[in-house]
Amino acid sequence: MEALENEIEQLRIMMIAVAEQKGNLCDPEVVHISQQLDSWIFVVQQSMPH
């Protein structure tokens, strides 16, 4: 689980950096990273007890 949390944190940092660099939240690279981030967050949420 810690590895997933680290991956999420790294993607979050990368997404923010790319968004700042591009100056546009709709840039395809930012959107792609955001989608990856969403996928990992979903995995973590599914593994949590309900």
Short description:
With 50 residues, the protein is mainly α. It contains two helices and no strands. InterPro entries: HLH_DNA-bd_sf, Spo0E-like, Spo0E-like_sf.
Account of the 3D structure:
With 50 residues, this protein is an all-alpha fold. The mean pLDDT is 94. The protein has helices at residues 2-22, 28-47. It comes from Alicyclobacillus fastidiosus. InterPro entries: HLH_DNA-bd_sf, Spo0E-like, Spo0E-like_sf. This is Aspartyl-phosphate phosphatase Spo0E family protein.
Keywords summarizing the entry:
50 residues, mainly alpha, 82% helix, HLH_DNA-bd_sf, Aspartyl-phosphate phosphatase Spo0E family protein, Spo0E-like_sf, Spo0E-like
Could you say which structural class the secondary elements and strand pairing correspond to?
A: mainly alpha
Low-confidence stretches: none
Mean pLDDT, nearest integer? 94
Distance between the termini: 16 Å
Task: Sketch the major β-sheet.
Answer: none
Number of strands: 0
Task: Give the count of helical stretches.
Answer: 2
* C-alpha Rg (nearest Å): 12 Å
Can you write the helix and strand succession as a string? HH
Instruction: Please tell me what the overall shape is.
Output: elongated
Count of the separate structural domains? 1
Percent of sequence in beta strands: under 5%
Helix content bin: over 70%
Protein name: Aspartyl-phosphate phosphatase Spo0E family protein
InterPro entries: HLH_DNA-bd_sf, Spo0E-like, Spo0E-like_sf
